[in-house]
Amino acid sequence: MRRLWLNGIIDSMDENMRRYEALGAEDGRIVFLGDSQEALKLHWDEIRDLQGAQMLPGFQDSHMHLLHYASFQKNISLSAMSSIDEVIQRCRERIQREKPAYLIGVGWNQDYLIEKRMITRDDLDQISKEIPVCAVRACLHVAVCNSPMIARIQELKDLPAQVKKDIDYKRGIIKENAARIYMDALPSYSDEEICKMIEEAQGEMNACGITGIQSDDLLSLAGVDPIRLIALFRKMEEEGRLTIRIYEQCLIDQENFPRLQKIRSHRDDRESLFRTGPRKILQDGSLGAKTAELEAGYFSEPDCHGVTNHTEEELYTLIRDAHLKKMDVAVHAIGDLALKKVCNMIEQVNHENPWYGHRHGIVHVQVTSLQLLNQMKRQGIQAFVQPIFIDYDMNIIEDCVGAGRLKDCYVWKTMRDMGIHVSGGSDCPVESFNILENIQAAVTRRNRKSTKSFLPEQALSMEEAVRMFTIDGAWACRDERVRGTLEMGKYADMVVVSENLFALSGEELGRVKVLETILNGRTVFLA
After folding, report:
1. CA–CA separation, 35 vs 41, rounded Å?
2. Distance separating alpha carbons of residues 131 and 125, to the nearest angstrom
3. Which one of 61, 100, 351, 524 has the lowest number of neighbouring Cβ atoms within 10 Å?
4. What is the CA radius of gyration of the chain?
5. Burial level of 27, CB count in 10 A (0-12/13-18/19+)?
6. CA–CA separation, 213 vs 202, rounded Å?
7. Residue 116 to residue 312: CA distance in whole angstroms
8. pLDDT tens digits, residue range 304-344?
């Protein structure tokens, strides 16, 4: 089917920032770019009038957790709750109303609670002592369980030592290596339940203009084998049920790594909607939970250096095994100590076994130093960053690193100016996957209420910010030759927004609406 969009502001985001009035697509590819009158001389099966709206390449989110988001939507959000008492009351009401077999809450943050403390087992026991209850912190690196949930966790057999050390049975707190262990104590989802969750979540993402994501999903659901999950994604694609491109950041146990190699996507595959991508590795935690690894310790608590999930020897092995299989890595590292370890291990692995085409990357890269950034540049290590994080983190970062280190935090402009490849993501469900909110944070360096700013000198231009969520996101998936810009022959992945972003200030982005999202030339969302 030949489709035409005309009378628009069509920004290609190519190197020359070419702008057109009309775009045509056929068989999933872009076949026309030019002015509207020229386009109308050709045959089209369908013509859509953009009426002056702007068309851009489809938005890309370079790091999120699709299935975590989808599963949490079936439970209860705690993000808007202002006190532990409110958490208790709302969860009680949910249980009384729906009588679930268990309850999972997600999104609480002690800094937003009146009590200014972590939720504990005793708090959740006030919700229920009959059914398992778990409250997951917004960062996903810490969770709290009530007594029935702890009892189920204690029944689990053969827990690894690194998991056991991160379980505080008395307070009901599980963190880092144990942060997802509650899922093993819950009943598993059926295949169709998983597929329906994916469909619902991707529909919401399409409504935000998203056509492509990098997502960490393989260990997101209780009792679901990661290889089975990959097969489900592929089955959905075969059945025409995927409306988004998914490049899986493969967080997988070392024992299952050989199984993954047997079924991972071909390195040259640029066509499939679902593909396995880099190996995901978690090296440290989060700043809000004080589990991110800081070399000098936390400014307000110097003896606390955070949590390391892998020894340097273990980290070396995980990176080396992927590197030798020509598989990129995407390593979660927030603190400068974790960042240092990851950079050193990538450098060592690449020195021993050179792979000049690697696109190894670090997810978050929040606390840095000029030395570490130079090492990233020298080794060709990319950064997956989340601009929207500054909305909350600007309130805690000085307490974490001290005023003297603020200049080294969330420095996306410095990274870009140095030539480090930087792509933008949301880390959903830690934050919203609303790309326009992320772009606004990158351009303004202000919080959502526009009452506070953080390092305004690190603000990006509107063009730079849009690139982070279009062509730079495509590059991070090795797809820059087939998508990410609107050029002849590339995939027809587009988003239509109500106003020209390049004519707006960052503060004005809040009024912009997504009108249409197109994947492979097919409309997957229409306002």
Report:
1. 11
2. 10
3. 351
4. 23
5. exposed
6. 10
7. 34
8. 999 999 999 999 999 999 999 999 999 999 999 999 999 99
If you average pLDDT over residues 385-402, what whole number do you get?
96
455-508 confidence digits (pLDDT tens): 999 999 999 999 999 999 999 999 999 999 999 999 999 999 999 999 999 999
Q: Are 269 and 275 a contacting pair, CB within 8 Å? A: yes
Helix (H, G, I), strand (E, B), or coil: what is residue 7? Answer: coil
Q: Which residues contact 12 (CB under 8 A, 6 or more apart)?
A: 18, 19, 20, 33, 57, 485, 486, 487
Q: Alpha carbon of 108 to those of 79, 86, 117, 289, 463: distances in Å?
A: 5, 11, 11, 11, 34
Bridge partners, residue 491, by sequence: 29
Look at residue 212 in the predicted model and tell me its pLDDT. 98
pTM: 0.90
The dihedral formed by the CA atoms of 363, 242, 492 and 472, expressed in degrees to the nearest 10: 0
Which residues partner with 163 through β-bridges?
none
What is the rounded end-to-end Cα distance, in angstroms, of the chain? 22
- What is the model's pLDDT at position 107? 87
**Phi-psi map region of 146: left, alpha, beta (phi>0 left; psi -120 to 50 alpha):** beta
Dist. CA 260–CA 512, nearest whole Å:
41
256-310 confidence digits (pLDDT tens)? 999 999 999 999 999 999 999 999 999 999 998 899 999 999 999 999 999 999 9
- C-alpha–C-alpha distance, residues 200 and 60, integer Å: 18
